[in-house]
Structure formats: structure tokens, C-alpha cells
Amino acid sequence: MKSKYIKWSAFGILFALTIVMATATILEKLLGREQIMNTIYGSWWFVSLWGILAFTSIYYILRKKLYKQRAVFLLHCSLFVILCGAFVTFLTADRGYIHIRQNQILNYYISEEDSERHQIPYDIKLLLFEIEYDSDTNHPVDFISYLRVDGEVCQVSMNKIYKHEGYRFYQLEYDNDEMGATLLVNYDPWGIAITYAGYLLLAISILWILYLRISWKILLSIAVVTAVLWYYISQINPMTPILRSPMLAAHVSVIMVAYLLFILIAILSAVALNSEKRSQALYNLNVKLLFPALFLLVIGIFLGAIWANISWGRYWGWDSKETWALITMIVYAIPMHKNSFKTFRSPRYFHLYCSIAILAVGMTFFGVSFILGGIHSYI
Asked: Tell me: the pLDDT tens digits for 46-83?
């Protein structure tokens, strides 16, 4: 098969997936989350599209001998590993809930998938549940369940999970009399490990590419802005216990700087479209800025995934904000493939694309929060 057919197959599937995801977020608002999770995100054809995309992309990279660009090849391999981890999770993981009262002993959970009892190979006893309050505002800052699991005393609280023999326990809800709690149980012994290995490879490849492509002055400037924003956010005391995590400042700061860079790129592109003399110079600058902008967004997304896995028991839940962040990542990744799309070697078309692409950022930041809603609607 000719390389061009493989290329158009891979990018065609990526385009189709982007349209499907954008449409799904709108349908979710109209039809409800459960229906869309079953008919789209959890469907065999949606999972198959991601699988076909992964293998056609790897085949295209090998066919074009793009593996000679080792940093770029590692980046794409890391994404492949992450997709493999997600697929293993899809096939083998299970989630469920335990409602347990103080001094009660249980050894099962109710599966989210089939609503049946699934055995846990040891006993769980709730010793005590308590609410921790802020001394100044008297608002709850943490919900803590003290457990005896397989003879070992431990605690589960917001943003603090307990792991034992492949099972992960999360604090979810509590009874009104504060004598009982509902724990979320996640059993995913293989998928999480594979996915996190992909995250590690992704981090290495991003640092490698930035080292090769971007000057230290640009990186230092961006790092300073990110650090200042991180410090400012870290001083905020959120009212919601789940937001009281060091991951909040890290996750939000890098994504906000990414958005600021995308806005700067759009502004420079608009200037370039109205000034032929500056077009080439601004093109060269925007190409450089696109690397840290896109990679900061990628880092922010995967930091959010790790945080979600700590707080909600899944690193990806197809929430509208997550989905649109992924769409934005794809939109801005396309012009990075100048070897595959010669159009983006033209300053004019590159600037025009970046001027339009900023709409994806606007939808992710404002549209989801004010129109689509979801678990991130408080942001």
C-alpha cells in the first residue's frame, strides 16, 4: 500500500474521531451521559477506531522511516502505549461500590457494570468515619474512612487511596449520621501500570523534543510564568474537598499557560495575515511557540488524568472538559506534521489555521463550562 493512502487513512480516522467526540459532548447534554457512554464511548466501533488509528499510525511511521527521528518516534510510541493501557483497562478492569457501616465487615462490592456482587479476597471493616473541618471557615476539608483491610489498619480519604492486591479503594460518600461510608472500588491490575509507563515515556519524549527544538530563553520564560501561576493557585483554599490537592495547582497552571500561548499564537497569526512583511518572521516564531504550547496542554491533560485516577478511580471518564481538551490537543497537533501536510509550510495557511484553531480553546475553556457542563463545570 502506498504511503499516501496509509497517511490519509490514519489522519482520516483521526478526523472522524474528532468529529465523533465533539458530537458526543453535544448529544450527552441532550440525551444524558449514560446513553452516550453506552452507545458511543463504550461501543465496540469507537474502541475499534482508536485501535485502527494506532496501528495505521505506527505502520505509516515505520513505512516512512520516521523512526530515525528518535525523539519524535518515542513520542508516538508513548501515545501507542497509553492507548494499549486504555484498551487493557477497557477489557479487564472493573469498578464498583461498597456501602459499609461502622464495625460492619464486608468482602464484596457491587459492580458498576452488572450490579452484581463481586467477591474481594479479604475482609474489610469500617472502624470509624470522620469529617475534618477547616479551623477558620468550619467548612469540610476532608472525609476520612478508617478501615481494617485484611488485618491491616488504613485510611481512605479524598485524594488519598488505599491499594491492596490489585484493588484500589476511594472515599466517595458518607451517611448522614456519619456512621457509614460509600467507597469506590477499582480493580485494574494491568491497565494502570501500562498507561503510567506510557505517561513516563511521553514525559521523556516531550523534554527531549523541547531540548532539540526550542531555545533555553523561551523555555525559561515559559517556566517562570508557569511557576508564578502555580504559586498563585497553590495559595487558594478551595471549598470542595476533592480540589484540596497539590495536583490542582500543577494541573491548572500548565494548562492555563498553554491556553495563553495558544491565544498569543492566534494574535500573532492575525497580525501576520494583515502584514506580508511580518508573515515569515511571525511564522518562524509561532512554529517555535507551538511546541511548548501543545506540550504544556498534553502535560496538563495527563496530570489531570493521574489526579482523576487518584480522586475518581479512573484516569479518563469522557467528561466534556476532558474530551474537548483532547480535541484541542488534536487540533493543534495537526500543524506539527509539516512533513505530512505541505500546506503548513506556507506561512499564510499556517496563520489562517491557527487563527481558526483558537475556537477549540474557547470551546474547551468557556463552552464546556457554561453550555455543556459536566464534572468540570466548577472550573
From this structure: 999 999 999 898 888 887 777 788 899 999 999 999 99
Write out pLDDT tens, residues 323-347: 999 999 999 999 998 877 888 999 9
Q: Supply 179's cell numbers.
A: 456512621
C-alpha 303/C-alpha 77 separation (Å) is 19
Assess contact for 53 and 21: CB atoms under 8 A: no
Q: Cα separations (Å) of 100 from 68, 96, 130, 178?
A: 56, 13, 14, 11
- Please give the grid coordinates belonging to residue 269: 497569526
0.85 cut: is pTM over it?
yes
pLDDT tens-digit readout, 108-160: 999 988 889 999 999 999 999 999 887 777 778 889 999 999 888 999 988 78
115 SS3 class? coil
Asked if 170 and 311 touch (Cβ cutoff 8 Å), the reply is yes
Residue 199 amino acid letter? Y
Q: How far is CA 206 from the centre of its chain?
A: 16
CA distance 44 to 130: 42
Helix (H, G, I), strand (E, B) or coil at 254: helix
Distance CA 266, CA 282 (A): 11
